[in-house]
Write a structure and sequence with these properties.
The protein has 334 residues and is an alpha/beta fold. The protein has an eight-stranded mixed sheet, sandwiched between helices. The longest helix is centred in the middle third of the chain and has 27 residues.
């Protein structure tokens, strides 16, 4: 049985998606879950949040670390030639939390995934092994890492686009969480994202049925939308409350119609709007935590979290624990 993959995705950038994955990975681990985080964004921001520059340089210098499966691209690079997927050499962040590092070189994998998507619908059953191996490479690596560490769940971070890399990341996903900001751009992004998810899901199921006798296990590509998380940015403080509320109130109906494909004829009540939670902006605590490569809720007075900051640190711990429990409940049996 495969380990469930939870992907955080929005084709609109600037919604604190990577920070969200980082903090939830830590929180799930603190709650006793065994977690694998996998960085499928070619910008590798999640990896740089977890690892310091010396480690990153060793992973990305093109030497032995990458060639030994030290990054996601290192694991799948043999597929671009004549080899097969390498088992990942994960980074242990803390007991119960492990990372499959991202790689800037991953961007070069886009064209091969695009070709494989077309080839997977070929009529010759003997020619389907390679395109399916390419298309499911992210899922295969994630499952290998989960097996290594007896993981309970896999958290995936992806880039803000609708390209072939993200399509392969999403067909590897059991559940999808959508981070959002309360603005026009996020609302429009939601309108683009929902139909794309449904299209990718349907097209993947067609490809699954095309390969009559698969030679290896394949992901189902359910991409079940769990809900959205509203990120409150600093800009919210300088904008009229009425304008902010206007965008917040429009998100539930847009989510229902665009993501779930349901027709809504009336306003959606808050309890049914699929909002998993609203996370405040922690202001100066964010750069403080980023510099130290630790979650906000681990900051101490020695780190500079004094005075009102100490209360904000405690609030952050509460906020992320509540959010993690909500996600855990909605994605049972995690």
């Amino acid at each position: 049985m495969s380990v469930p993959v939870l992907t955080f995705f929005n084709n609109k950038g600037g919604v604190s998606k990577t920070s969200l994955v980082f903090h939830l990975a830590w929180m799930f681990a603190e709650m006793g879950k065994r977690v694998v985080a996998i960085d499928l964004d070619p910008q590798a921001n999640l990896t740089s949040a977890f690892l310091d520059e010396d480690v990153l340089e060793a992973l990305w210098d093109g030497g032995g670390a990458r060639q030994s499966g030290g990054t996601i691209y290192g694991c799948i690079q043999p597929l671009t030639k004549v080899g097969d997927i390498l088992a990942p050499a994960t980074q242990t962040i803390r007991p119960g939390l492990h990372l499959v590092p991202g790689d800037l070189a991953l961007a070069g994998f886009e064209d091969q995934l695009s070709r494989a998507w077309t080839d997977a619908m070929g009529s010759d059953q003997n020619q389907l092994y390679r395109p399916f191996r390419l298309l499911t490479a992210f899922w295969q690596v994630a499952q290998m890492a989960a097996t290594q560490h007896d993981a309970d769940l896999i958290l995936a971070d992806v880039g803000p686009n609708l390209g072939a890399i993200n399509r392969s990341a999403l067909i590897a996903s059991d559940h999808v969480v959508i981070p959002m900001a309360a603005d026009l751009f996020s609302l429009q992004g939601l309108r683009n994202l929902g139909p794309t998810l449904r299209s990718w899901r349907g097209d993947w199921h067609k490809r699954l049925s095309n390969w009559e006798s698969p030679d290896f296990e394949l992901p189902l590509g359910d991409m079940h939308p769990v809900g959205y998380i509203l990120m409150q940015h600093m800009e919210r403080l300088s904008r009229p409350v009425k304008a902010y509320k206007n965008w917040v109130d429009r998100i539930p109906v847009t989510y229902l119609e665009s993501v779930l494909g349901q027709v809504s004829s009336a306003s959606v009540k808050p309890k049914t709007d699929h909002c998993l939670g609203q996370l405040r902006h922690y202001r100066s605590l964010i750069p403080m935590a980023q510099e130290l490569r630790k979650p906000i809720f681990h900051l101490t007075s020695a780190d500079g979290a004094i005075g009102s900051h100490s209360q904000a640190v405690r609030d952050a711990g509460t906020d992320f624990k509540v959010l993690a429990n909500q996600i855990k409940y909605l994605t049972r049996p995690l």
